[in-house]
Amino acid sequence: MNHPETKQALRPAKAEYARIATEEAFAPAEMLEMYRKILQGPDPDPGFVSLMGFYMSSQSARARHIIECLQDLGEKRLQHMDEAGIDRQIIALTSPGVQIMDAESAVSFARTANDELAEAVRNHPTRFSGMVAVAPQNPQEAAREIERGIKQLGLTGVIINSHTHGEYLSDQKFWEILEAAEANDAPIYLHPNTPPRNMIQPFLECGLDGAIYGFGVETGMHALRMITAGVFDRFPKLQVILGHMGEALPFWAYRLDYMHRATVVSERYASMKPLKKKPSDYLRENFVITNSGVAWGPAIRFTQDLLGMDRVMYAMDYPYQHAIDEVIALDGLPMSMADKKRFFETNAQRVFRIK
Ligand code: CA
Fold first, then answer.
1. What is the whole-number distance in angstroms between the Cα of residue 80 and the centre of ligand 1?
2. Which domains does the chain have, with CATH numbers?
3. Catalytic annotation on 317?
4. Per-residue pLDDT tens for 116-140?
5. Could you give the angle at which helices 279-286 and 297-307 cross, rounded to 10 degrees?
6. Residue 273 C-alpha to ligand 1 middle, in angstroms?
7. Contact between 290 and 241 (Cβ < 8 Å)
8. Which terminus of the chain has fewer Cβ atoms in its 10 Å neighbourhood, N or C?
9. CB 156: neighbour CB atoms within 10 A?
């Protein structure tokens, strides 16, 4: 389905809407070089070894296709977009981005990557938009880089690849980053990472640590930690984007509301304080969800019912899920043309402020 050899003449028809793909990845060659050093260094992170260790060493067609496409911000990417009927990609540094690096390298490399992405956006302003990569390892510098990326480089949105060395944005030490995102009207795309060292073992031993499940569990928990820590009471205008149908959180909404209230009332945990609203209210007001990796009508419909038609957007997850047949399947969903235009085009234009 998502292998390069299955790309036949299959092409999506011209549509009445532009298709904007909102979770598309790139990786500068210099970053892959740094990854190689980290992988060869002492005691590398087990999730990182499982993920990038695999993609960077496997000779399988899938791995080679992904590594090649990740590094291209020019003709190859544009050709793949044309073949798949994608009008615009919103591009972000691939997971785990700079978050696997030491703080100093991460700060410096985030700047380099943002400069490179901004140049590609300048070269192809009608086809590419880009998100700002930051190093949460240094919250003050991350906040500065958000401002530089949005105001000077013309990037739109911030990419954070879930946990940073096992730490979460629910921790107040990171709130300077959230403050900067809110102040710059920049949504944070909370993209998956492999589970951290203290969580990954049961996933690893059965091969479930990656995109198949571990990504979703870890990232869904990250988003939920932000909700229950009161992040959105403190930053009510902050918008967080979750891929993969909201990492299953919409499906949990009823139980989250019920058990959050029961837990607060029983005073079971000092860490679980009362919130101004129900957990599901924050999902409806502070989250936008993309269907990256999930070209499946019932899940999209359910999420649209819960969050509203304005809060569910299209994403392909290129090059990891480079699947033209999925674009055709999504074009054919039983949705009104007005709603399809919201899903593919206008929600992304609003969220990423694309003119
Ligand atoms: Ca992705």
1. 17
2. 20-350 (3.20.20.140)
3. yes
4. 999 999 999 999 999 999 999 999 9
5. 100
6. 32
7. yes
8. C
9. 21
